[in-house]
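Section: Multi-chain targets

For targets with more than one molecule, the full set of components is provided together so that the structure can be written out for the assembly as a whole rather than chain by chain. Components appear in the order listed by the source. The example entry contains two components.
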Amino acid sequence: MANAARFELTDDSVVVIIGTGAGGGVLAYELARQGVKVVALEAGGRYLPEDYINDEWDSFGQLAWTDPRTTSGDWRVARDFSGLPAWIVKAVGGTTTHWAGASLRFQDHEWKALTTYGAVEGASLLDWPIDAAEMAPWYEKAEAKLGVTRTGNFPGLPGNNNYKVFEAGAKALGYKQVSTGRMAINSVDNDERPACQQTGFCFQGCKWGAKWSAAYTDIPRGEATGNLEVREHSHVARILHDNQGRVTGVEYFDRDGNLHFQAARIVALAGNSFESPRLLLNSASSMFPDGLANSSGQVGRNYMRHTTGSVYAIFEKPVRMWRGTTMAGIIQDEARHDPSRGFVGGYELETLALGLPFMAAFLDPGAWGREFTSALDHYENMAGMWIVGEDMPQSTNRVTLSDVEDRFGLKVANVHFSDHPNDIAMRNHAYRQGQAIYRAMGATRTLPTPPYPSTHNLGTNRMSERPEDGVVNRWGQSHDIPNLFVSDGSQFTTGAAENPTLTIVALAIRQADHIAREMSAGNL
Amino acid sequence: MSRLRKQGLTRRALLSRAVAAGGLAVAGAGFIAAPDAAWAVEVTAITEHQMATLLQMARDIYPHDRVGDRFYAIAIKGYDSAEHRAMVAEGIEMLDAAAREAGFDNYLAAGWEAERVAILRSIEDSVFFQTVRGGLVTGLYNQKEVWPIFGYEGESFSQGGYIDRGFDDIDWL
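Its structure, encoded as tokens over all components, is:
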């Protein structure tokens, strides 16, 4: 970027943002646009559409976060993928390169989970300190930024083969809310990016740029303002503070392993729900022995990953589900809160397709023999869907520091997760409904597939009205440290049933507005 | 390191110096080959018996009747290395011992897949089995030459995606 700014390490007037995904990338642009000087530190490298690879494993090697993490708890991911609790991205733009594009607002009642559902045993439910009315204008801005289909004047995307099976099955069961959904994938040329070419490989980075990603929208636009410097391959080790308990900047390792200190007026943490709490915990000091922003003891707790799972089905004739948009449609009838089903909260059903290599890895990890291979033999005749439902926050599902250290000698995140009974009841209901949808279309075999490594990582620095209940306030600002913000999905109080990116983006736009205003007023 | 090669050995030449190995592949001096000599794997660091057993084991773990042995051979040829020699020797001995427990001379001597699968089940928690199985997930299914057998089309960007190539061409609904 010709105009990209360069700031001094000693420049303590900058806002330092850690991470450049849906939260950090958007916050960086929205602040730079308003004249705020920003240094964004990104642990990964920079890849653009011409770099993305239409190949699942090669792309995984290019984009995925594969630095060590450890796992515990009774979730199957801890057994099958013990070092890979999440499938998320380490690159400029973060997981917005990998996401499928589903862009749904929370339902109104989901902002008030505790009030709506009542106390649930074993769950640490809480109401968000904000609500649907307050978020509505920010959702509008987020939808406009992302060019979300079926909002504004953007038409819906056309349905692919996988969607057509899904839609017909849903209608056969009497579902009404079935469509190709609200997607941050261009259905028409928009925002200097082309319309979707139905290429597939949405998870591998969109080579057309038809899917919105911060990597080639907000990040370069922020740099073009002259107010944003993105430092790639910059792995933050610690956030430092002064005697008054205000943060003063961050220490980070550059690509050569050299340690630097970047001063800051404000630090915004957007490293995702593993790295953000890890960094707060690794920043413990004599003044904050339990980690920064952790007077509540809530840092790292209430890790949520959505109640997920997949249903694949085999038909007599070909489907070729991999062709076209990976997440090509949605059924929303089950997203309602209806405890008569045996659980609180709801779930969405969304089409999903994996290529053969990932199907082999994820269909039934660890399985072998003909029961497994006879399913893969009919890969061409498979259709697939993904379950995404609200999971219960639990205090014991948490990110802590592991005994394992990374190459910089920093303790890595251990991710502990066990399903709540509500999660299990919801997943089983969704498995039944998903299989019924495909059986209605003549499926000869249905495959209720276990959850993959997490893509929706939420909670761990949750937002709360009262300081004792959470880590950040209604602005994502630390209850303890006024110039420390959290800007990613870790601030989620509860997870709702919807894919989280649109909400992360809306919160980041809102937070940028707040920070810029408070800086102007001299309050920050 | 071993290598896989197409070679012009005649069936008779091969059989003349080969030991039958489970009817699947033929093991000879320094190589194993398909009975019809369509392909062969040279072995350097491990024995022909070990390579032939690995090949049968790979097929029994992930049996696809339309996927030829040469693809399984590619998936396991990396075990023919000094680095893996001890692991392979110990692992195959464990497998053959389990086969003897089940009343066979060795693993390859068990004629039915179900018999071999029962033997594999008895060692499936071992590091050796899990290493071989885990390696096959990418070693077998990530071979681009295998994909068309399953109908998978792979990369599509260079062909303009599927917008004009059948993304919505389903005709049986």
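Residues 501-520 of chain A form the longest helix (20 residues).
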